[in-house]
Amino acid sequence: MNPQMDDTGQKIRVAVVGASGYTGMELLRLLINHPAVEITALTSESYADSPIEEVLPSLFGMLKLTCKKFDPREVAKHADVVFLAVPHKTAMAAAVELLPLGVKVIDLSADFRLRDPAVYRQWYGADHAAPELLKEAVYALPEFYRQQLTTARLAAAPGCYPTAVLLGLFPLLKREVVDPCSLVIDAISGASGAGRKLDLPLHFAELEGNVKAYKVACHRHMPEIEQELSRCIGRDVMVTFTPHLVGTVRGILATITATLVTSKDVKELRTLYQSWYQDEPFVRILPDGRFPETKQVRGSNFCDIGLAVDARTRRVIVVVAIDNLVKGASGQAIQAMNVMMGLDERTGLRLPPLFP
Amino acid sequence: MNPQMDDTGQKIRVAVVGASGYTGMELLRLLINHPAVEITALTSESYADSPIEEVLPSLFGMLKLTCKKFDPREVAKHADVVFLAVPHKTAMAAAVELLPLGVKVIDLSADFRLRDPAVYRQWYGADHAAPELLKEAVYALPEFYRQQLTTARLAAAPGCYPTAVLLGLFPLLKREVVDPCSLVIDAISGASGAGRKLDLPLHFAELEGNVKAYKVACHRHMPEIEQELSRCIGRDVMVTFTPHLVGTVRGILATITATLVTSKDVKELRTLYQSWYQDEPFVRILPDGRFPETKQVRGSNFCDIGLAVDARTRRVIVVVAIDNLVKGASGQAIQAMNVMMGLDERTGLRLPPLFP
Amino acid sequence: MNPQMDDTGQKIRVAVVGASGYTGMELLRLLINHPAVEITALTSESYADSPIEEVLPSLFGMLKLTCKKFDPREVAKHADVVFLAVPHKTAMAAAVELLPLGVKVIDLSADFRLRDPAVYRQWYGADHAAPELLKEAVYALPEFYRQQLTTARLAAAPGCYPTAVLLGLFPLLKREVVDPCSLVIDAISGASGAGRKLDLPLHFAELEGNVKAYKVACHRHMPEIEQELSRCIGRDVMVTFTPHLVGTVRGILATITATLVTSKDVKELRTLYQSWYQDEPFVRILPDGRFPETKQVRGSNFCDIGLAVDARTRRVIVVVAIDNLVKGASGQAIQAMNVMMGLDERTGLRLPPLFP
Amino acid sequence: MNPQMDDTGQKIRVAVVGASGYTGMELLRLLINHPAVEITALTSESYADSPIEEVLPSLFGMLKLTCKKFDPREVAKHADVVFLAVPHKTAMAAAVELLPLGVKVIDLSADFRLRDPAVYRQWYGADHAAPELLKEAVYALPEFYRQQLTTARLAAAPGCYPTAVLLGLFPLLKREVVDPCSLVIDAISGASGAGRKLDLPLHFAELEGNVKAYKVACHRHMPEIEQELSRCIGRDVMVTFTPHLVGTVRGILATITATLVTSKDVKELRTLYQSWYQDEPFVRILPDGRFPETKQVRGSNFCDIGLAVDARTRRVIVVVAIDNLVKGASGQAIQAMNVMMGLDERTGLRLPPLFP
């Protein structure tokens, strides 16, 4: 029942390093039906030598591969593109070994997102292993770095929060519609964003029915957001960023509040967004009176954006929803691969959301 | 972004009558990516004249059709196959009008599942509008009625509970391994099985975190299960069937307990199931020590089966999981359509489960 | 098993008008164990003449009263204090009839919260039925209007969002620590805040797993928040208020961002809050590094407050958690009753949260 | 705000050994408001020397005690009654040390439930450390061993599944209404029953929305159920027991199917149950057509029982709901303490369920 059998043509051979975590298994869910791709190698340190269908029972009968311990030569021999779905620090070490072997690398960790090694050290508590690669890595938000991705050898898939925030804010900042000093961002995430590593706050009985803020004004995605916003307008931007965790699995909802430089009504702003994103296959600007819901994008690569203006306080409120494991991680990584490999960017990603 | 554009070839034109309910929207989710199908018409009484992307925001940008009030001539003009995703009683009336117009009809309601009009009246409180069509209708469980489906004009997609129970029990009954008088079935369903109609027990604050039994020994799927089990072995079978509702959305888990006629160990039984279902693309017999979980099939057309034997009491326990909206409704209906239209049965249904 | 039997002494006789909604049933849950109270009368229009233990199966065997249709004379005959747990508009009509009969009235609806009848009309779409009572009504946030409550005849229990926001903001505004023009409030609520009335967005399968913003910058609690903040500092305050709904039942988490007038560190602010609330039995100022979680207050009358400062942007972030049905509604109403009746304010409300 | 201060009178001094797990914290939630008890000592190996309000933030401000490492002399010095809320094996070692020091011990683990040391070894994989105490220990289901509890020094609080099953089955077996060879039990539990220890199947993203069977026909509560049923009728009883885990936190629902020895209608059976349990404060026999729901007992010590008869198959279906942490653990342990200490059995346990 492997759909890849149906197709002829030369397939792109891909490997997934770290197949047993949530972004790894989400890559597999999406790649299994990607018509231009053949999954050729999987690695997992915790499940080395286990068939993937034992590791991920949802894939039982769908993929006949066995996880191996990571060996860069072995991986590079079987793959044209390697996805790194391993924790930060591990990822940069793997990239350093893989790139000279001629493969393209798409890293889903944080290791190649921050351009400044000092900032990396400050937020991730380690020296960067490959500062020279930092310069080369392309920040894999295709809506803004598509051109650079076409020739990239190393892509850094953005964090989930930054994806939602940047797609929500870029049009306003680029058009100088809002005061960049006024940005207040509250974002809500489900538990899958924290990964599969056991931790008491992620224990079912603790999190179910719970709503809380965490890492208030000190989350690692804050410098990533600020870096990209600053690049966007060419000067330093600082934001107040408060992430929240609720008892759901998938989805990020970001609510961004900003002060308008000059009065604008919501219709003008919607027109701006619609025109800005008119050719983007995965960004949906919602009509008047409708706001994004995480469940309306669940399992899909969509980023939904809704807009409101509080004329009294002259503030705009931008609400953005993505599935953190798809547009916020694995789907975006595949979208980047499509660009890097010259495919139609939508290939394998035309998935309607799973609702209800 | 309509994937149907990519393909040439003559497409099967399909209409969905009742597009705004859960089985209707699930048909759309699956059919949008079905390579041999073109969705040509949608009806909805509650949302007549609304674009489907307003009715179902998850499909925003994916399907450019407007819901109409049901008009059989209009539907038949645009479709080769019509799915009826409307409540019982409404469905049989629609089928009576549609069939003479030359379309094939696949009914997801209960209207053509019970062969005996008297049983229908007893359980659904109405005279059957087309008893002669009852004789013609094929019970659309492809694993057992595939042959009959190839020539069917009218197919009755099985209920969600019966799908799980029948796939779990047929091998045991056919092979006379268990006593047909000993069947005790407890099944657990999520809320989507109850549909989109508002009702206090389905109000979020009431159901969240709740576990309960309902319609104990008097659920409408009981006579459907008994009819098919009786046909299976050629004599009357009665079961004790207790459905349960829990605070989840998708999934049915059926736990079936039966007394073995002669001692058998679990290995023998697994071999029986594996051989029985060896050519079935959607039935997965789980290995030793593994039991089905609804989340391992969510969003997919799989039916997972696990087995245990309590040697002390000489009972077998069969555990079955399906997604009630896919293998228990819309996926199965499409599987039936594939058979009826001579397509590869798996077309459009090779979906990995959405986990986590 | 009625605990009220154990006690002698003269009990306060209380009636609950609207016993079958969520705030009504929560009043019963709390009042059943209130040692100074006897529940003497219940009304419900939808369940008139039904025993309450049929209407609310959780109370089966705990309360032997039958719901009646609302009759002001009948209610006043049996009660010293009447809680109104009915929708707005209905509540003000009931208050008008009840007060002249000599009972004290505690209204949980919005009818007596807004002081200006014009603002009421603007936000609730109706003329106020008793503008003169508006002047008399005391806003029943005991932490700020305790003195006025001791002599009140009519109390207006605050909305759930306003309770969280006002308790979180008053110390900062009163002490002029933040710029009142800088207030951005994002709040997250569970579904019980929307009541028991059926509605598609509250249908289980729609809301489960969902996160969304709603009534962005136009929620009815916004003018209530602004009214009280303005009274607090003696001049007009406007806020940007974005409420969110997530798939949980109980709990509100409010995240308030404000710009500091002069630099302050979090320790100074915590000292301010601790001293401000030092005698308050239900406000808990969390220690350094800890932030509120809705589940840590579930079922209790606590209001938990956590603080952070983003020194770079000179903003303070205040996070507040309450159980919307307790401190945000019924618990607060009972706290107000305790004050109005000269009881220890904590009576009947010493409930540890239900965790996990 | 410690309610124990309000009362004079001599209090029973209680210690909780293992205060940081779910049954330990639930004991604290209930004991804090128990009017005849003073909590005097807490132990926790993982959180030794931490104030309990840091360990359990929900109790912040409610209990001013610090957890210590377990030292039997220290505990016995401060307590009349000791609750053991630690894992099996640890519990029996503690009991052996505590009993000679003159305290009463109530063990919430499995260590003193099974009378036969050989059965203990078979199911718990260890030799029993105190087989002589096994003979002395009273199985603390007050509805059946009340008399024995009045003089007990050592009580073994029943498992959560056994509590539900035994309360549901005893009347039928005692009255010889059903065939003891026909018992099929399917039970559904929330995650809190599995405790606070981290484990991948209890990781939020894995369990949320999931429904599964586990330990089919081999759960450790099966021999406990069989032991007590066998004692009940004086001969060996074997059951088929299939536990299920669903994505909720609190609650057990047990569905028991049994064959009637002679035909009986549901009315006769309800009369039997009502008369059997007429003096029991915590067992509620639901009226005709109503079935238990876990949420209708959540947070309370109630055990709700509903009944149905399938006359066609001559089977009775008994449905039972409890909160596994209350009637299935900590509430039941306190109920036992009340009996052992000569208090009104209901003291401290008159808690209405938390609904919704």
Automatic annotation (TrEMBL), chains A, B, C, D:
Listed GO biological process terms: L-arginine biosynthetic process
Full protein name: N-acetyl-gamma-glutamyl-phosphate reductase
Keywords from the named record: Amino-acid biosynthesis, Arginine biosynthesis, Cytoplasm, NADP, Oxidoreductase
Gene Ontology CC entries for this record: cytoplasm
PANTHER family: N-ACETYL-GAMMA-GLUTAMYL-PHOSPHATE REDUCTASE, CHLOROPLASTIC-RELATED, N-ACETYL-GAMMA-GLUTAMYL-PHOSPHATE REDUCTASE, CHLOROPLASTIC-RELATED-RELATED
Catalytic function, reaction form: N-acetyl-L-glutamate 5-semialdehyde + phosphate + NADP(+) = N-acetyl-L-glutamyl 5-phosphate + NADPH + H(+)
UniProt subcellular location: Cytoplasm
Principal subcellular localisation of the protein: cytoplasm
Any Pfam family matching the protein: Semialdhyde_dh
Pathway: Amino-acid biosynthesis; L-arginine biosynthesis; N(2)-acetyl-L-ornithine from L-glutamate: step 3/4
Active site: C160
Naturally occurring in which organism (per UniProt): Candidatus Methylomirabilis limnetica
UniProt domain Semialdehyde dehydrogenase NAD-binding: residue ranges: 13-152
MF GO annotations: N-acetyl-gamma-glutamyl-phosphate reductase activity; NAD binding; NADP+ binding
Family, per entry: Belongs to the NAGSA dehydrogenase family. Type 1 subfamily.
